[in-house]
Amino acid sequence: MTAHQVQWLFLGLVAILTLSGLFGAAARRLGQPAVVGEILAGILIGPSLFGGAVADALLPADIRPALTALANLGLALFMFAIGYELRFAELRGRSGLAVRVSVFSVALPFVLGVLLALGIAGAHPVRSRAGFVLFLGAAMSVTAFPVLARILADRGLDRTRLGGVALAGAALSDLFAWGLLGLAVTVAGAAGQQRMLLVPVYLAVMSLGVRPLLKRVFAGADEHGVSPAMIGALLVALLLSCWATEWMGIHFIFGAFLLGAIAPRGGRRDLSTEVTGRFEAVSGLLLPAYFVLAATRVNLAEVGLSGIGELALILLTAVIGKFAGAYAGARVSAVPKLQSAALATLMNARGLTEIVILTVGLQLAVIDTQLYSLLVVMALVTTAMAGPVLQLLERRAGGDARRLGDFEYDHQSLGSVPRISSKTGM
Amino acid sequence: MTAHQVQWLFLGLVAILTLSGLFGAAARRLGQPAVVGEILAGILIGPSLFGGAVADALLPADIRPALTALANLGLALFMFAIGYELRFAELRGRSGLAVRVSVFSVALPFVLGVLLALGIAGAHPVRSRAGFVLFLGAAMSVTAFPVLARILADRGLDRTRLGGVALAGAALSDLFAWGLLGLAVTVAGAAGQQRMLLVPVYLAVMSLGVRPLLKRVFAGADEHGVSPAMIGALLVALLLSCWATEWMGIHFIFGAFLLGAIAPRGGRRDLSTEVTGRFEAVSGLLLPAYFVLAATRVNLAEVGLSGIGELALILLTAVIGKFAGAYAGARVSAVPKLQSAALATLMNARGLTEIVILTVGLQLAVIDTQLYSLLVVMALVTTAMAGPVLQLLERRAGGDARRLGDFEYDHQSLGSVPRISSKTGM
């Protein structure tokens, strides 16, 4: 790196941190999650305005690779944390309801997304028609687990029954959506097809080799806490898993997510805060760079009149699919109408996760820039909707978050809270 | 970044983390600080063996800029922490002794280094003779504050009087050495000389603008703890300070160090662990990359017979200068002989800090690769010496670390422990 590049690296990071900090804080003041502001900041400095002159000035081309490297590292740590915080235990006792909500809230938008894709595929230069169709289906069926957790905490709903079901449902939906995305990426055949045949080998190595190995490394953590050597081993495993998935032509986020899902969480002692706490500082510094950089690829200037029609179609498909799907899943489980609507509103927030998925689609040329831009706007709108709609529902519940959050529903019908009936029910 | 580069970024980081982890652990098992192992790892994969084929294979040229960016970020955070952990309060009550130890332990090696530089300047292609001479003086007079803290903790000396004096002395020595390095860099005139005239303006802005501003940002930290917004503000200030110093043609480490020195430490509540704790995870991940990358620039293969003679000269100058200087400073303060020798041994460890300084010299072309290689070896040897020599001294003190660490000395002579006499004494 020349001295000039070093200077611009510092300035570029200052620009990203300042923009994401200010826009994130403004978003939170308006009752929105910070990521809404961060994405908006990226769009504003991107090519949509002034031909991207602002982004070119703040983040010159010759430091973009270094910034992207930093952002990718932040994303890998973040995706690890998402996988690591998947609490299968949380599903216990409400698995029936959560499974129904998530299956319905993934299936309907996926089907609608596929239909939409078949309709608009002709208007876009696509590399693989099947990959394109599957990708759009997957993109519609995403729920942003981390954003959802944030919204629940902000509104005091995180320790209510509604919050628990929403989180469990979102975690399951994420699993489905990642699976669909993996399928779409595979079908689109982005990289060497032969290498993808090694995916089962990779999965076997991860579950039969890496998982027990990490368990042994973390054996002493229950008693003596998490040591730097354990974190080091976890990091090496994370980077190797990222490399392996990237090498097979899948995206590294899958490798990071999977390692998070299989990493040891401790026995008597819960290690999650100790482990993710160390990564939070890194990803807190590097992740905003990812979202700002991702949003600078949005170009709303090239969206014409036809694009606006397409955006309306995409928004309708996304919102109706997700909302109706999740609502139906909850009603089938005999959840009251108001709470079913709240659940559906929460599941509709796509935030962060959608941006990650869209970036993968753009990088692998599964979608073009125009569609990417429209889908980012969709992610922004569906995420920003959640707060105001929830407020409306809260008012209808008597202005009390707990009355909205802690609903009663008939255990003997389809929905089943006790563990035993969840096995016999449905 | 292409998919290929992303893959190699992950593999490169795996290589660095694995190498630094294994060699660091091996060094610690041999009673050495981890940095000795990390530097050794870098030298072994560098051009000294097999023409650098190993480093080229593990860290390909097209990901070096991204790795260097990551390493630089880690270094900036690390230098901030060094500045932040400078405890001027620790000097209270032992300032007389610490000042004498540090002044002597900087002055003698500096003078010897200058003499050495005048002797060997003819054999090296130097950009600026005065800059070269000053740089070599500065490089000889460094003490590695962080390595010293590590050694003291490892040997159970950190809460003894010896440990306190050594730390305070090393902190002061670092201040002197950084000042000398700044002078050397300025004289060598690496970048636009006119911009350097702005250094007083920069210092004024930092102390009159940034310092009170950060104090106001951290006003609530005493009661409510350190918030993410405070950390964000601190990071932006850090990056801007790094940019400013780099832009003026000085190295960004000065900007990071200075910001650390003026950053608020809290009033009633000590914020240091909260603040540096968040950065430690980042720099713990990124800093090994810095040392490994720095050491891969060492080329011992091109050191000929004359080089070995020069290395012997450099080692003698460094060890005799530092050891005799610190010993004299302690003896003048009436510290017993054994403890004076222990202090001198500690001050002689140059570790981390020396590597940072040498890299600056190489980047600004103040020294050439051959001298860089020799000086890295010197840093390695002086650091590795400390452990065994201390063990020897401990054995002579009766095999007890506390008996070596907690010495008595005559307060009425030159050395002065109580606060009042430290103002009147000397």
Describe the fold and architecture.
2 copies of one chain form a homodimer. Chain A is mostly helical. Chain A has a domain of 298 residues: Na+/H+ antiporter like fold, CATH 1.20.1530. The first copy, chain A, contains 20 helices and no strands.
Write a brief caption for the model.
Chain A is mainly alpha-helical and about 425 residues long. The first copy, chain A, has helices at about 5-30, 35-45, 55-60, 65-85, 95-120, 130-140, 145-155, 160-190, 195, 200-215, 220-225, 230-245, 250-260, 270-295, 305-330, 335-345, 350-365, 370-395, 400-405, 420-425. Helix content of chain A is about 75%, strand content about 0%.
Question: Can you give keywords for this protein?
Answer:
20 helices, disordered C terminus, Na+/H+ antiporter like fold, homodimer, 426 residues, mainly alpha
**Number of helical regions of chain A:** 20
Largest sheet of chain A: none
Outline of chain A, from the CA principal axes?
A: globular
Low-confidence stretches of chain A: 410-426
Give the C-level CATH assignment of the domain at 90-283 and 304-407 in chain A: Mainly Alpha
SSE sequence of chain A, one letter per element: HHHHHHHHHHHHHHHHHHHH
Largest interface: A-B, 45 and 45 residues
Oligomeric organization of the protein chains: homodimer
For the secondary structure, the number of strands of chain A is 0
Rg of chain A is 21 Å
CATH structural architecture of the domain at 90-283 and 304-407 in chain A: Up-down Bundle
Specify the helix fraction band of chain A: over 70%
